[in-house]
Amino acid sequence: MREEKELIVSLVEDAGLTEAEALSYMKILKKGSIPKEDADNSVLSLVEKGMLILSADDKRYIPTHPRLAVANQYRTWRERMVREINERRMRIDKLILELITIYEKKREGKESGKV
Fold this sequence. Notes:
Number of domains: 1
Helix content: 55-70%
């Protein structure tokens, strides 16, 4: 089993959490819960990411099972990366079309002797 510090680094580097989120998740995972009134921005961010949920009595945040929590975080990160890659591909395709236009105009000029 890896040391806690290594797990936190992995949560940041591999799962895409911020350091504050990783520290909060590990703390809550070890304690089992955190009172709702003690929630800070990192805790609320983990709730948004589905890594923590509100208890049935609406008083505490509890961690979701690590298999679900980390898998959800990874899936969210992956979807964001795929979206960014697709958007970049669209920008690249547009750039290529614009460059082809310039290239072909230059070639047309050479063929008609207008260099």
